[in-house]
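Journal club side-thread
Mid-discussion, someone asked how the predicted structure for our own chain would compare to the paper's figures. Pasting it here so we can look after the session.
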Amino acid sequence: MTTRPNRLVLATGTGTGVGKTWWGAATLTIMRERGIKVAARKPVQSGTEPAGESDAELLAGATGELVRDVCAPHRSYSIAWAPPMAARQLGAPPFGIGDLVCELQWPPDVAVGWVEGAGGPHSPLADDGDTVDLAEAIKPDLVVLVADAGLGTINAVRSAAAPFSGVELAVALNRFDPDDALHHENHRWLAERERFAVVTAPVQLAARLARTRSG
C-alpha cells in the first residue's frame, strides 16, 4: 500500500449480498458530488459472470476511476465462490492477504479511501485469511458493517462486529424502512443497547465521513 488516504474505510457485511457495494457506491457518489476526493478498492472479487456490472465497475462509476484501478484484472474471478476457492477452481495461482495489501495503490490526496471485502468478516478472502485479517493489515480508521434491517439483524450485527473490537465501527442498515416497526426497534436496540453508531441512508454515512476526515 502506497500513499494512505486521509480517512481509510473498510467495508464488510453480515453476509454475502447484503448491500456492501450499493452502500459504497451511493456514499462515494454523494461525497464526490460534494467535491470530496474519494477512491475505492476491491482487492479481490468473484462472481463477475454472467453479464452485469461487477462490484469494481459499480465502485469505479461512483469514484470516476478506472475499473482496473479499483480491482486488478488478475484479482477478478468469474465464479461466484469465495475468491481463493474461485481462483483454485479456475487454475489461478494461490494468493495471500499480504499480496492483496501490497497491490493496494492509491492516488495522491485522497480524502476518503473505501476498501471493500468479500462476503462477511470471516468469509475466505485469500488462502491465508479473511476480511478480519485484512483489517489487521491495513488498520482502517473506520469499519462500515452493512446489515439487513429486518429479522435476525441484532444477532448478525453483534456476531459480525465482534472481530473488530477496538476499531471504530458504524453499522449501516440496508433497506431500512422507518415505517416498519421491526426496523425501527432494531435501530433503537443497536444504537441504545449495543451502543453502535447506526446509519440508515448513504447520505448519513457520507456526512459522517466528511465530518471525521477533518477531525
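Post-session note: The first helix runs from residue 20 to 33.
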